[in-house]
Write a structure and sequence with these properties.
The structure is a homodimer. Chain A has helices spanning 20-32, 78-90, 100-110, 126-141, 158-161, 189-208, 236-244, 297-306, 317-332, 335-355, 385-397, 422-437, and strands at 49-51, 54-56, 62-65, 117-123, 145-149, 177-180, 213-219, 248-252, 277-280, 291-296, 360-366, 369-374, 400-401, 403-405, 411-414. In chain A, helix 3 (100-110) packs parallel to helix 9 and helix 10 runs parallel beside helix 12 (422-437). Helix content of chain A is 37%, strand content 16%. By secondary structure, chain A is of the alpha/beta class. The first copy, chain A, has 12 helices and 15 strands. A 7-stranded mixed β-sheet of chain A has the order 4-10-9-8-7-5-6, with helices on both faces. In chain A, strands 1-2-3-13 form a 4-stranded mixed β-sheet. A 4-stranded antiparallel β-sheet of chain A has the order 11-12-15-14, with helices on one face. In chain A, a hairpin with a 5-residue loop joins strand 2 and strand 3. At the A-B interface, helix 1, helix 2, helix 3, strand 4 and helix 4 of A face helix 1, helix 2, helix 3, strand 4 and helix 4 of B.
């Protein structure tokens, strides 16, 4: 496999000693998997089972999972497992026959959103959801220009890879794409004005090159830009500008959605606005491949009139059962409230670590999504990508899984299942202190 | 929902009387599903469960499924259901950790192919597989031109919708796309020469417009073009031309793959050539969302070097367990051999019906993929789309599910699970005779 300087925390051959078994598995991967695959960690880990917030290796090694947001109600949650097993044995078919399953779930999903967001389309992946959102936006606006954030990630289809600069310089952005920097959330109310100014410039530059703006699309927690959970309506002025220019606003909730941010069920609700399209994926089925688009009915009208859309597996019977059980668990176990409470305590514990370690700069947190900036100590406090990679790997050695993100790769990305408890926070902090101590 | 003249067998409001329950479900769909959704049949059917080749409605109605190729080893096959349930309870995670599951399956998959096709990349849908194949082809060839068949269907992402003319005139083809007609398989060896001539013209036209050819991509059974199972190397000359011009050949096996054609495991093997890329999807997990790309290692090398590719759910633990169990069942139940034997008997039974009904023109069959042309009787024998739609709907009334396809919409598309038996053929023929008798 190739290494990839644009990807934080990717395995690079020769960077650490491996066991015979690890090397054998890596050799097999190099032979039989296409060369675009990447592994995590200096010493990649083998996983054979998972339970709640824990992952287990072949020799019983145990890892605290503080990274995988897909399994947002916990690895192998019994209710989700049971529903997948039950429905798989009864029926697994598509949306061109009538079925209450897809309608029950769709109605339940839109009920979590403002009334204007009334219609659903199901896909299998967040990439497909964003790809479909772009197709809908283009039909609705008769325009093609797209505005994204500087280090955005929206997926891997051809169309959305062109709006995903975080994939690195080997993947071209489209000529119809403009990027805008993400202001520092610590700017408070000013961040919105700064962001709006950048978006205004992007609109003008698109127009100067013959494109009209079709959409502004953002991950509402700006995960790949470094985890930027704004407090207050940072996006409002920018969205107003885009709409005035004939474009729409797409909220990518693949990262922030389904109760992760604690205070709200969807990330866009923290910004106090109503998107034209909302896309979602990863945690929707707790690992079962299901994703989707929720859209205002008039926004999808022209697309629906001129195109049909059929996704063979999208919204299939089992996907709907799995996704329904995820909503059940979030409600029954109070996971939004848990994300809120544990997230605050988690951030507080991190701030105590920060008070004794000048290499930790800002800590940004919303629910159980936390970004921790690591910097060179001293006056300049420049981003320290190498130190972040070191800590991610020492955390792995200490049995805790996280990664790093952001334009400079120096932001620890902490994003555990929503069942994370105060005890798990203690385990995490203990490992973090040990990891920091390896590089004093 | 909108009706869609480009889609054969789509429900059109008002075309038939519905029950209160059907109308209620349709009303709910119109409210909560995006308007690009379509239903099958004049009187859409509600399905609540399935078993092997049978689907069941809410009041115990039973339908013989002669259409759904996704469930290729039968609805709710116990071994697949068990494997999905078992693995879901143990681990469902992604490919950035080491796991034998993905390697075991990948090695098993490439073992079904010629040695040069040695590397796999997993996606969730056939659309994603074809989208990824286009990205790989562009990197490898440094070209962008794509040649497809006249009524091709390759999926619904933005990129592959642009190479899917069967989606109708509301979905634009790319300016870098050229279509070629599919010759009549009854031409025998001449079909290859005719096809090669069309491809040569497409290459020349691309070049005249400033594009170099990146790829020729075909569904190896030409399903949406009307089900065209060639005998012999129809594609060889055309593929040679494309390769001489710097392009590659992509075999889309979403329809033909996984033993459906009976004589071979993959459709491209019937053409006696080795593709540069093979894409697959629908039947791979018997309904579990899993799909993929198999590629020659040197063809994916540049893509892998310049891009990483990560599909969150693609190749996940449960997908691999499901896909592995599908291969088990195909082998253990001899389903390739069954498709071969029952397919021949099925075609023979259809030819007996044809001998007594001049509205049935050609019958084309490979394994359990059968196309039956319906025409106006008389000398011209023009395609009869309305009659085909009538028969599809009468078959539904008689408890058998099929659809229609082809550029003129007059080809009955018969594509049952691979467990179809001679008894099921009898049920089908009985229903067909009754359906034909309703419009003498």
């Amino acid at each position: 496999m190739n290494h990839d300087s644009s990807m934080v925390n990717s395995y690079r051959p020769g960077s650490a000693a491996l066991t015979v078994r690890q090397q054998d598995l890596i050799d097999r991967r190099e032979r039989v998997l296409g060369s675009a695959y990447r592994l995590f960690y200096e010493r990649p880990i083998e996983i054979v089972s998972g339970q709640d917030v824990w992952l287990f290796g072949p020799d019983g090694e145990r890892y605290l999972d503080a990274y995988n947001n897909v399994v947002s109600v916990g690895h192998c949650h019994p209710r989700v497992v049971q529903e997948i097993a039950r429905q798989s044995a009864v029926l697994s078919t598509h949306t061109r026959y009538l079925s209450e399953l897809v309608l029950d779930y769709a109605e339940r999903l839109v009920a979590t959103m403002p009334a204007a967001l009334s219609q659903v389309m199901f896909t299998c992946t967040g990439s497909e959801a964003n790809d479909l959102a772009l197709r809908i936006a283009r039909k609705h606006t008769s325009a093609t220009g797209i505005i994204i954030t500087e280090n955005a990630y929206h997926g891997v289809t051809d169309a959305v890879s062109q709006i995903s600069p975080s994939l690195g310089p080997g993947v071209n952005l489209g000529s119809h794409v403009r990027t805008v920097p993400v202001p520092d959330p610590s700017m408070g109310a000013d961040a919105g004005a700064v962001f709006a100014k950048s978006v205004a410039e992007a609109i003008a530059d698109l127009q100067r090159h013959g494109y009209q703006p079709a959409a502004l699309i953002v991950d509402t927690i700006f995960s790949s830009d470094g985890v930027m959970p704004y407090v207050g309506p940072m996006l409002t002025a920018a969205v107003d500008l885009v709409r005035s220019a004939g474009g729409i606003f797409i909220a990518d909730e693949v990262q922030a959605g389904f109760a992760r941010t604690g205070d709200t069920f969807w990330g866009f609700q923290r910004h106090n606005l109503v998107p034209d399209i909302v896309t979602m994926g990863k945690p929707m089925g707790n690992g079962y491949p299901v994703a989707g688009v929720v859209v205002q009915s008039e926004v999808v009208a022209r697309f629906g009139n001129e195109s049909r859309y059929f996704n063979t597996f999208g919204g299939n019977s089992v996907a709907m059962a799995a996704a329904g059980s995820v909503l059940d668990v979030i409600e029954n176990q109070g996971l939004q409230q848990n994300a809120q409470a544990v997230g605050i305590a988690f951030a507080e514990a991190l701030r105590q670590v920060q008070s004794g370690d000048s290499r930790i700069d800002a800590i940004r947190q919303a629910g159980l999504f936390i970004g921790v900036d690591l910097v060179h100590p001293g006056n300049d406090r420049n981003a320290d990508r190498i130190f972040a990679s070191h800590i991610v790997n020492r955390m792995r050695d200490n049995g805790v899984l996280i990664s790093a993100t952001g334009r400079h790769g120096n932001v620890l990305k902490i994003r555990p299942p929503l069942t994370f408890s105060l005890d798990h926070v203690s385990v995490f902090i203990h490992a973090l202190l040990a990891s920091l101590a390896t590089a004093q």
